[in-house]
Amino acid sequence: MDIVDSSEAPGPTPVFFVAGGTGISAETLGNLMLAQFPGLHFTRRKIPFITTVEQARTVLAQIDGVTTETVAPLVFSTVSDQQIRQELQRTKAAFIDLFGSHLDTVERVLHVNATHSATALHGVGDTLRYDRRMQAIEFAMEHDDGASLRNLEQADLILVAPSRCGKTPTSMYLALQHGLKVANYPLVPEDFDSDQLPRPVKELGDKCFGLLSTPARLSQVRGERRPGSTYASLAQCSHELRRAEALYRAHRIPSINSAKMSVEEMATVIMQSSRLPDLG
User: Fold this and answer.
1) Which of 100, 101, 132, 243 has the fewest CB atoms within 10 Å of its CB?
2) pLDDT for 130
């Protein structure tokens, strides 16, 4: 295959994420690969819930409709049904099978035939795991930004950070993807006047994990919310981050800087550092 320098590449490459279920896995794995080509541009489209051969033929027509001699779309597929997968593989586009290409290997190792069920991919087939994820999401929503202190001791993890450091999206991601009950608690200006943890989490330090950012990034994010405010000023952001870092250090609370990390990266580092199991 000829390698094209990104500076000479044509327009955006069409990318399709095709799945028998929600398409979350196809999108996640596909984007992970596309991230390795930062100089290129892509137009992305997710097509979920492909459950019949007829639907596959419709999708095939859409994909091949944008395929030309100069435009070669990429198709990332997590379709599990063999007949549907075979139909999709008839495309003129580049077809990346993220499911079937590895399923045969797993079947051989386990000596068991797979169910080829799309619903099993995200836990619907396992009622216990699915219910646990839903309970974790409800817990994260109830305990977002210190809104509720009820049953805080039941949390698997408590994210502590100054405002706008990424507490909410990280909490929701850990709940949705990993079934963890995550609360998040904001550090407000009065918390920085003391060397003690805020009263609601004072006795739960072993469950706490701190988030930080850079002053410039935090000021930018806050400025989008409250432009021109003291809250968003570089001086205020620098002060809060310094005090938060000192608080984490004094109470031996692990922390990460979220400024240049994706939610997925943050969740992975947090789980490894805190030795949290994947319950989702």
Assistant:
1) 101
2) 78
